[in-house]
Specification:
The chain has 156 residues and is of the alpha+beta class. The chain is 17% helix and 43% strand.
Length: 156
């Protein structure tokens, strides 16, 4: 099999431009795959999941045996602290963006809200996903990776 595992090399360095929270959430809503980070047995755990935005909240689907389902079920109000990350960075050009949301996740227990969440988001895996978890963002950060040419000069 022909191919190279050598990393792509950019002709020029990339600039990192911070995003405001509104633009960061807009970009997060433009993709459907992210990674949720939560604590399991006192250690950080990361799971890839598909998501949908419901207003500013992130909604993911889970199943009965999932560690996240168990953690959010045991959590009291306001929920369990999680981080959620999504990005879209081109591996060849190294251009794109990354967004991290930190907030509280809780299991959706209201039957009407759960049915609505289930209608908004179809799981990617072939498995029964009877539960939904809602993440309420407290901190939203993000950045663009761009070329220097893409940065508008400051008025001065």
């Amino acid at each position: 099999m022909a191919g190279s595992n050598a990393p792509a090399v950019c002709a020029e360095p990339r600039r990192r431009v911070e995003l405001d929270s509104g633009e960061a959430l807009r970009l997060l809503g433009s993709v459907s795959l992210g990674r949720i980070v939560f604590t399991r047995h006192a250690l950080p755990t990361v799971r890839p999941v598909n998501h949908v935005l419901d207003g500013d909240d992130i909604v993911i689907r889970t199943h009965e045996g999932a560690a996240l389902t168990s953690r959010t079920r045991q959590a009291g109000s306001p929920g369990v602290v999680v981080a959620y990350e999504a990005d879209d960075i081109d591996p060849d050009t190294h251009l794109g963006w990354s967004v991290v949301v930190t907030g509280y996740a809780h299991l959706v227990t209201d039957a009407r809200d759960l049915a609505r969440c289930q209608g908004m988001l179809r799981p990617w895996v072939h498995q029964t996903m009877d539960h939904a978890v809602r993440i309420r963002p407290d901190l939203v950060t993000g950045f663009l990776l761009t070329t220097a040419d893409d940065i508008a000069p400051a008025d001065g």
